Q: What sequence folds into this?
């Protein structure tokens, strides 16, 4: 038979085991809740970064398309109307590029697009576009309101505008690379988020 002290000892051991199990379950539950909250916060930050990036990508895509349209109208002469369009789009693109660090950089914490950047030569095409921007910035200097009397000066101006046309045509092609990279990047992000919304 069991003595009273055996019953008390058994009860005490059972109580200690129950407390230990309860403590371990509470710790596991707290750990699970913490991890769930952490995943939720990361998902929210990731979503915010993706939304900002998608907005920037779409603006950049539209701006490159406008640029290409303006460039296609340019015939290599100092046509004031077309040049005004090119300068306007250039200024708008410059403003957009100033937002890059705020809108685009956070996405790189969560995603790696280096394969897309290599595939479409994003860095090289950006350098080509920047060269065109530099020439566009010099346009006003070469568009004299005074009539050109000197034949040599006239030839130099014509040559400059011809070279500008060549540079802009190359830049338009580079912008196509940028647009292709944007489309593929956007699609990758959309595909990533589709899995969260499929039930």
A:
């Amino acid at each position: 038979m069991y003595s009273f002290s055996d019953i008390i000892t058994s009860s005490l051991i059972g109580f200690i085991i129950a407390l230990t199990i309860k403590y371990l379950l509470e710790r596991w539950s707290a750990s699970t809740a913490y991890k769930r909250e952490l995943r939720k916060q990361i998902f929210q930050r990731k979503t915010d970064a993706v939304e900002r990036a998608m907005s920037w990508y779409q603006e950049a895509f539209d701006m490159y398309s406008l640029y290409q349209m303006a460039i296609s109208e340019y015939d290599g002469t100092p046509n004031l109307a077309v040049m005004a369009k090119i300068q306007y789009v250039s200024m708008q693109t410059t403003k957009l590029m100033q937002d890059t660090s705020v809108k685009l950089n956070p996405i790189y914490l969560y995603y790696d697009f280096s394969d897309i950047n290599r595939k479409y030569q994003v860095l090289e095409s950006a350098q080509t576009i920047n060269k065109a921007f530099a020439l566009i910035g010099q346009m006003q200097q070469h568009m004299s309101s005074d009539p050109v009397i000197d034949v040599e000066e006239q030839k130099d101006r014509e040559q400059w505008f011809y070279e500008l046309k060549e540079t802009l045509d190359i830049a338009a092609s580079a912008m196509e690379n940028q647009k292709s990279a944007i489309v593929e990047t956007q699609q990758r992000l959309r595909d990533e988020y589709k899995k969260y919304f499929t039930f």
Observations:
- The helical segments are 4-73, 80-98, 100-103, 114-119, 122-137, 139-142, 151-194.
- Residues 4-73 form the longest helix (70 residues).
